[in-house]
């Protein structure tokens, strides 16, 4: 995130909003100005005071019932300049022209420290990019995004955040009438690989250059590589941030579910929690999305799909990497070739942490992969197996011969047993948003207007590395025979 001068807020009362909307000052090709569509009976059902405080917002003011008019889109906060962003995307590999079909960017909040965050409403009504959709969102998917994004934040994984969920008092119609809601999403930005793909597909080189410089200044202001070639610097910065992000997903067993290029943010944050889930039983082929029939976005495919998406990003940058495309192409290819090694480096570091390893040894990758093979063959729970791993004894699905290899590896480093266990506890989560618990909480909330179970689960996943005081139901794997969850995009 870049630091920017804070806007003058002396004349901006009402919630602590301090907007400075740099994206809305870009040319008209980047967005369409649009107003949220008012709803009949807005009511805030979730509010994130900790996040609000970090954004420099007035928590007291925004906790009032009247704040529902802002969080539902009936009233614009001072300084807002609402827009729908234009972008394209490779959806399951097929290029499609898209845009914010059910989201409106209110503006960019500048915190007291100078950090900049997008404030976006999801579900506030149609935009020019809605493609005959209603632009609305159902309560269940908005609660899911709030829960999972806050869980990811607590896990230490780069992510968009959720500031509030407001119900609209109006139904949305999908397969059945569902309660409508609006989510207020907070992101370092909503610039996507698909934003670059759009202008490349249109042959708009001037917009590409402008977008490169805007994105580089916003997300990679301290890059020193390639000062003569900002597009190449941006490409390499994005490759590094995505390599880290995907490694963290793999560390905790997270499956995004729909890794289209319009869902890869240049900020390096996890974005768009539609058909997402966490694996229970370890399975690289695990798929949860109802529309991913071929397993394109399965758990184990995520690193290769990230590389594929970054290759599309590199292709989009060809016109601005070098005036001569014959020289631009090798620059892009060489950058993309770095991704597998960068991902593997981050993944090995994350997995070494799960095993309590502080140093690097040539046999570590084989040690890790052999453990994963044992978990796969034993149909073992991924989270529980790592959390219960202990150097004093092999248990559950852990083969004794593997355990002996691991403890022998631990003896090669000088750290104490206590230091090893501390490192493992910091990398192996005790609580994840188990799919069956998430579905039960959402069912209570949407069908019975009862959020008590949701709040208990939210509290548990907000302290994912701490077992103390956690309800046992959130610590255990799902009961035997629990069917694999199927998730939906939530449109």
List keywords for this structure.
12 strands; alpha+beta; 491 residues; two-stranded antiparallel sheet; globular; 13% strand
Secondary-structure topology with pairs:
Blueprint: E1 31-33, E2 43-47, H1 49-54, H2 59-62, H3 68-71, E3 83-85, E4 88-91, E5 94-97, E6 103-110, E7 116-122, E8 137-138, H4 139-154, E9 161-173, E10 177-187, H5 193-202, H6 205-219, H7 230-252, E11 254-255, E12 277-278, H8 302-321, H9 325-337, H10 339-354, H11 364-377, H12 382-387, H13 400-410, H14 417-427, H15 435-448, H16 452-461, H17 472-475
Antiparallel strand pairs: 1-3, 2-9, 4-5, 6-7, 7-10, 8-10, 9-10, 11-12
Structure description:
- It is a single chain.
- Helices cover about 40% and strands about 15% of the residues.
- It has about 500 residues and is of the alpha+beta class.
- Among the domains are: about 25-185, no CATH class; about 355-425, no CATH class.
- Strands 2, 6, 7, 8, 9 and 10 form a 6-stranded antiparallel sheet that branches. A two-stranded antiparallel ribbon has the order 1-3. The protein has a two-stranded antiparallel sheet with strand order 4-5.
- Strand 6 and strand 7 (about 115-120) form a beta hairpin.
- The two termini are about 30 Å apart.
């Amino acid at each position: 995130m870049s630091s920017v001068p804070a806007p003058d807020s002396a004349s901006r009362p009402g919630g602590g909003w301090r907007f400075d909307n740099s994206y809305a000052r870009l040319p008209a090709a980047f967005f369409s100005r649009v107003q949220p569509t008012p709803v009949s009976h807005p009511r805030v059902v979730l509010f994130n005071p900790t996040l609000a405080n970090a954004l420099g917002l007035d928590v007291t003011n925004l906790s009032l019932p009247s704040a529902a008019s802002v969080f539902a889109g009936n009233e614009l906060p001072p300084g807002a300049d609402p827009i729908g962003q234009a972008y394209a995307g490779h959806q399951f590999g097929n290029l499609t022209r898209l845009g914010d079909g059910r989201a409106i960017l209110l503006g960019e909040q500048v915190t007291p420290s100078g950090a900049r965050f997008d404030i976006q409403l999801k579900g506030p009504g149609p935009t020019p990019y809605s493609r005959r959709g209603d632009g609305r969102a159902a309560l269940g998917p908005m609660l899911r995004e709030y829960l999972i994004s806050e869980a990811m934040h607590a896990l230490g994984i780069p992510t968009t955040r959720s500031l509030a969920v407001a119900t609209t008092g109006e139904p949305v119609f999908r397969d059945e009438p569902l309660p409508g809601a609006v989510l207020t999403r907070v992101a370092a930005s909503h610039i996507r690989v698909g934003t670059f793909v759009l202008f490349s597909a249109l042959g708009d080189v001037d917009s590409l250059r402008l977008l490169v410089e805007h994105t580089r200044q916003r997300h990679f202001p301290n890059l020193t590589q390639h000062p003569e070639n900002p597009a190449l610097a941006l490409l390499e910065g994005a490759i590094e941030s995505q390599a880290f992000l995907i490694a963290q997903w793999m560390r905790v067993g997270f499956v995004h579910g729909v890794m289209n290029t319009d869902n890869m943010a240049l900020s390096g944050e996890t974005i768009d929690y539609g058909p997402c889930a966490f694996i229970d039983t370890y399975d690289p082929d695990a798929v949860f999305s109802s529309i991913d029939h071929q397993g394109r976005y399965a758990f184990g495919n995520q690193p290769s799909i990230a590389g594929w998406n970054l290759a599309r990003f590199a292709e989009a940058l060809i016109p601005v990497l070098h005036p001569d495309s014959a020289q631009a192409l090798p620059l892009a290819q060489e950058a993309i070739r770095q991704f597998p090694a960068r991902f593997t480096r981050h993944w090995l570091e994350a997995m070494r942490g799960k095993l309590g390893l502080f140093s690097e040894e040539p046999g570590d990758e084989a040690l890790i992969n052999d453990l994963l093979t044992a978990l796969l063959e034993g149909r073992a729970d991924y989270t529980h197996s790592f959390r219960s791993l202990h150097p004093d004894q092999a248990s559950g699905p852990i083969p004794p011969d593997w355990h002996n290899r691991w403890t022998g590896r631990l003896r090669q480093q000088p750290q104490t047993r206590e230091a090893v266990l501390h490192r493992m506890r910091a990398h192996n989560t005790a609580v994840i948003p188990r799919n069956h618990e998430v579905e039960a909480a959402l069912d209570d909330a949407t069908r019975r207007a009862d959020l008590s179970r949701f709040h208990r689960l939210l509290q548990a996943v907000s302290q994912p590395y701490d077992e103390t005081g956690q309800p046992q139901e959130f610590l255990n794997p799902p009961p035997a025979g629990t069917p694999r969850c199927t998730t939906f995009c939530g449109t």
